[in-house]
């Protein structure tokens, strides 16, 4: 299912033109991913005064596709994270691609988008969701620069820590980098 053009335009505007990536990332950054095109993906759009002011994506799990792919949930995040803390048999959705128009940041838009996410989860008997963010960096200096930019634009908390971590499949020395949120 193709996302509404206003959703992708808002993503581009929020992330590239005036968002935290302005001036530091490639302006040709992709704002549509293959997961946007799946029937189980919902791209939500919030409107104010007839104009799109916020968007968020929810990707629902697909048991049949998971079995074919050899994954637990067949979600985008499974390409880079492990879902060890999600109980066996639980259904989980991935929530991400949140973009809020600069004039509506700090408003009720994000709460309304999450309210819609929770309604969709309830309709599909999903109790957990994971949030995603494109914050990977190959060097610690890049990560620190990125987080400082996020912080300066009001997109991040001062509690964010940028430090190197091991990402091996067998690394049990660190806390899991994913925690499921239940509603």
From TrEMBL:
N-acyl amino acid synthase FeeM catalytic core domain segment(s): 8-128
Protein name: N-acyl amino acid synthase FeeM catalytic core domain-containing protein
Species annotation: Aureimonas endophytica
Upper classification of the organism: Bacteria, Pseudomonadati, Pseudomonadota, Alphaproteobacteria, Hyphomicrobiales
């Amino acid at each position: 299912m193709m996302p509404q053009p206003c959703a992708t335009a808002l993503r581009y505007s929020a992330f590239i033109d005036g968002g935290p990536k302005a001036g530091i990332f490639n302006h040709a950054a992709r704002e549509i991913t293959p997961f946007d095109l799946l029937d189980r993906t919902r791209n939500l759009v919030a409107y104010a005064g007839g104009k799109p002011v916020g968007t968020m994506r929810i990707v629902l799990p697909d048991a049949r596709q998971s079995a074919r792919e050899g994954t637990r949930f067949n979600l985008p995040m499974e390409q880079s994270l492990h879902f060890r803390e999600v109980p066996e048999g639980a259904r989980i959705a991935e929530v991400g691609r949140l973009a809020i128009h600069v004039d509506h940041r700090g408003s009720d838009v994000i709460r309304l988008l999450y309210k819609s996410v929770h309604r969709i989860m309830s309709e599909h008997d999903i109790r957990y969701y994971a949030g995603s963010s494109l914050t990977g960096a190959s060097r610690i200096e890049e990560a620190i620069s990125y987080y400082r930019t996020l912080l300066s634009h009001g997109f991040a908390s001062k509690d964010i820590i940028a430090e190197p971590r091991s990402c091996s499949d067998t690394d049990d020395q660190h806390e899991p980098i994913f925690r499921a949120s239940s509603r």
